[in-house]
Design goal:
530 residues; alpha/beta; 12% strand; Fatty acid amide hydrolase 2b; Amidase_dom; FAAH2; AS_sf
Length: 530
Amino acid sequence: MALTRLEKVQVWLLKAATGVLFALFRLLSPGGGAPAGRRKLPPVSSPLLLMSATRLANKIRRKEVSSVEVVRAYIHRIQEVNPFLNAVTKDRFDAALQEAKQVDVLIEEETGGEAVLEDRLPLLGVPLSVKESFALHGMPFNAGMVSRKGVVAAVDAPPVALLKRAGAIPMGVTNTSQLCMWCETNNHLHGITNNPYDFDRIPGGSSGGEGSILGGAGAVIGVGSDIGGSIRVPCFFNGIFGHKTTPGVVSIENQFPVCSGRQAEFCSSGPMCRYAEDLLPMLRIMAGPNAGMLSLNTKVDLKKLRFFTIPHDGGSPMTSPVSKELMAVQRKVAQRLEADLGVTVQEVHFAELRYAFQIRGAYMSLPDKEGKPPTPFVELMGEPGKPLWPFWELLKRMVGQSDHTVPAIGLALLEKAHVTEPSAFIIQQKERLQKNMDELLGTDGVFLYPSYPRVAPKHHHPLFRPADCAYTGIINMLGLPVTQCPLGLGEEGLPLGVQVGAGKLQDHLTLEVALYLEKTFGGWRDPGAN
């Protein structure tokens, strides 16, 4: 399909703007990477680090292992890998050990038996990592903002509180991109986070600290948020599982930044983990009183589902073409589904996906029902003072005096330049795509879709193609649940993966497919293994 004149102009402007920003960044910013010397993580040595949270909880309840032993194993692993990853920004090891000791005493004194503990405290004694944009009582709560350096959470965000109430023990908080609005985890407060499979590669964002420490076996379960791929992109790049829930199920309260305009319709909190069997119990806990909105207790027969595969976005000029190895592994998933389950995986295409980047940009800027627009990004960057002036901030950045990253400044500049109302054409494309997808999926349809056009890129390279996250962002705009699933390692030793989506409130379908794909493709791989 030929580009319209307007599309050609948009593509040229985007490439020109990102090219300039990238050149400035490389000229004026230090690179990423781990300390000189070692280029690979140490392999996992403790068998406790190779067990799912579900299995660990069972062993702790049965007194086959103590919570203290598990927590100490993860403390050792974090201390071993974090110098290379820069994923955990603040630990609470002393408090975690004290809580683990209390767990072990509780188990010794429990008279109701293992079943009572499992029902009341399903994650009792299991370590947990938390994205720093979630409030975790007594811990930093700054979302990568230098101006919020001294901010400490006075409460727990609801999903965190529910996981703690279920017995999980927070080990610390993890790094994010500045204000959680970029696909690389880097800020001027905590620095840049590295990918556990290749320190020169990005771990994704904005939940990149979570993805990195989980992928590096420094955590077994974690908490993320997703308004454009912030769970799924890090899970893809770090070879782990993650679930973007149907919006409105898991609370997004007590997070920073706060959603405004219509953004709450597109934002989800959800679980991130190394083992697929932990997704469903985590989601059940995190959803709290809203768990009844989902059919999490319904047994799923994969042979009775309808499967679809969408190989790409139809050739958007804004995004990179999907790489051959990612196209091939998605075809392999479809072939295995057909061979193992006896189903037919139908290939489908949606012309509207070509406009995914523009659709997300338009809907993220829409006002709420009362007509109030989203909080301008320049106001968030100026927190807690006045809105900043992005042009001045860019000049400061050029002489190394800005507290803000190039992507954040670039987003602020783009926001200033964006003064027109969303076009009727883009709104029409989204509405048509929504209707077609909802009708296709119903309550028994599952689809495969690329997570990103390529495997984890090198540090700062997303500045070249900022629209590549449209592959995840469009799913947020449609309000669909989707699970990110690892599919082994590719030619460069980097994780492969795919998004598995379903109709609204059909989260249980994608979680069941995740279990199947883990068994079929092997799930998470130790990045330190030979």
